[in-house]
């Protein structure tokens, strides 16, 4: 299986890369680790005319422990995050999430920027070129008039793409209130990571042509806080999550009142899903089993996964979201009380 | 479009005109005739194309050849020195960890990458290090034993 032909560019500066991609519009893609992009190109899901390597442009592979935050360059390898002492100490949930992406070979090549900008997936879209020769073109692969093949759009209704965002690191980072720096043709901007995701499976990222995610900024964890990421998959390696639950809780003291809580679900929609009720239920309260039950029920309602395997129906995945939320919060509480 | 690049494979320098859309795997096998690196799924799922780049195991099928320029590439051909097998290779032979042999180069390089980082890994760490390498003869126990024997020596 060869890659389709393309023009390869390796600009010396990030501004040059931005200019190249913004001029080419949809004809150019950015390559970092390549572990998500190249399989898609081999299967001819993506056939860009130009591939722009940004690894030479600027040194974006770093983990910097600042005064009140940790900054991670977008080109930092997932394995470096998994093994970083700073990340392990301050954000163990992120180290764990990064360490559960794919297999070691993916993590040695794949970057944090790439994992956050992962394309959405579904069992119809993520097939081979051969598969597509005998099936109708779907909305994500094709044009505006092509229909989603999982849930064909009814006459007169707008098309919807239900493909799933399966990144492992995004739920944890959103739970940690991370911001990302984006450089583009109009300059540099900083947005909350949650706003990077549109929720539209066809265009999952809120990035314009030429926009490049350059840095991930995570605020330092407060004193009595902890996080937990739990991932469900069939095999212990390589699989994307069938459900991912990231939770982060801040208490005012050991065994104290909850000041902040966030629960973010992965792989249950076209974007990471924040369980907004979690904060309302837990804040200003001492966390009890009843409240945990209530939060996990909210997670159950917020999760809208697809059935995509015989062994794993949508209902089963919804229930997993509930159980994992409960487990995550319990493990956070015991981590804080033992700290 | 072709580009002239310098590759350093197993300590030897090569100058190759490569197609920019060719992967490192294709260049190793087709241009340099280093067919020890195996091609199987070609999508980064099976691990049989694993090579070391600067000592770190990666999928050569998901690495563009042009991006391997200036890096130190090690393939299975580069492990034996002066006709003597690398301890890992010898251990695979001794433990019967080679069955059909197709996954072996990837397995050994993934293990090599682990041992470079951590010379005395435990079994869990070994299993994690080769979790990206599939063996369809399913001889995993012997493979883990073979790596373990080198690790604890």
TrEMBL record, chain B:
Keyword Oxidoreductase on entry: yes
Enzyme class: oxidoreductase
Keywords: 2Fe-2S, Iron, Iron-sulfur, Metal-binding, Oxidoreductase
SUPFAM superfamilies for the chain: 2Fe-2S ferredoxin-like, CO dehydrogenase ISP C-domain like
Domain 2Fe-2S ferredoxin-type, first and last residues per copy: 3-79
Entry superkingdom: Bacteria
UniProt EC number: 1.17.1.5
A molecular function GO annotation: metal ion binding
Pfam family, one: Fer2_2
Protein name: Nicotinate dehydrogenase small FeS subunit
Organism the protein comes from: uncultured Desulfobacterium sp
Encoding gene (name): ndhS
């Amino acid at each position: 299986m060869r890659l389709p032909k393309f023009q390869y560019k390796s600009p010396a500066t990030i501004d040059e890369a931005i200019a190249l991609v913004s001029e080419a519009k949809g004809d150019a893609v950015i390559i970092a680790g390549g572990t998500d992009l190249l399989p898609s190109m081999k299967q001819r899901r993506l056939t860009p005319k130009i591939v722009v390597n940004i690894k030479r442009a600027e040194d974006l592979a770093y983990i910097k422990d600042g005064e009140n935050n940790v900054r991670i360059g977008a080109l930092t390898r997932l394995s470096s995050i998994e093994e970083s002492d700073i990340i392990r100490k301050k954000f163990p949930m992120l180290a764990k999430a990064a360490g559960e992406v794919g297999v070691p070979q993916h993590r040695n090549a794949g970057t944090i920027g790439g994992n956050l900008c992962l394309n959405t997936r579904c069992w119809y879209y993520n097939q081979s070129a051969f598969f597509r020769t005998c099936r109708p073109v779907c909305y994500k692969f094709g044009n505006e008039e092509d229909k989603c093949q999982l849930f064909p759009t009814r006459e007169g209704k707008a098309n919807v793409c239900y493909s799933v965002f399966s990144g492992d690191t995004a739920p944890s980072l959103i739970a940690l209130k991370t911001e990302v720096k984006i450089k583009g043709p109009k300059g540099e901007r900083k947005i909350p990571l949650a706003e990077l995701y549109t929720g539209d499976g066809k265009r999952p990222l809120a990035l314009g042509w030429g926009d490049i995610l350059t840095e991930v900024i995570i605020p330092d964890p407060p004193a009595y806080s902890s996080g937990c990421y739990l991932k469900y998959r069939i095999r212990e390696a390589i699989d994307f999550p069938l459900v991912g639950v990231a939770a982060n809780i801040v208490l005012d003291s050991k065994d104290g009142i909850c000041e902040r809580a966030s629960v973010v679900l992965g792989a249950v929609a076209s974007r990471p899903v924040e369980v907004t009720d979690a904060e309302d239920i837990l804040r200003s309260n001492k966390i009890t089993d009843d409240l945990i039950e209530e939060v996990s029920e909210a997670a159950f309602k917020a999760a809208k996964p697809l059935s995509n395997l015989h062994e794993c129906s949508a209902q089963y995945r919804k229930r997993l979201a509930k159980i994992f939320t409960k487990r995550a919060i319990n493990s956070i509480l015991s981590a804080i009380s033992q700290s | 479009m072709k580009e002239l690049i310098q590759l350093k494979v197993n300590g030897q320098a090569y100058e190759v005109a490569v197609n920019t859309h060719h992967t490192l795997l294709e260049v190793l096998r087709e241009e340099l005739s280093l067919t020890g690196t195996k091609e199987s799924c070609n999508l980064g799922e099976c691990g049989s194309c694993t090579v070391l780049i600067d000592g770190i195991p990666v999928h050569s099928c998901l690495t563009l050849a042009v991006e391997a320029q200036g890096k130190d590439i090690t393939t299975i051909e580069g492990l034996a020195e002066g006709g003597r097998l690398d301890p890992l290779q010898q251990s695979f032979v001794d433990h019967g960890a080679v069955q059909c042999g197709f996954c072996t180069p990837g397995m050994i390089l993934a293990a090599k990458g682990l041992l470079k980082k951590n010379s005395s890994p435990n079994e869990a760490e070994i299993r994690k290090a080769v979790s990206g390498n599939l063996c369809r003869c399913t001889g995993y126990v012997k493979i883990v034993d073979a790596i373990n024997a080198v690790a604890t020596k």
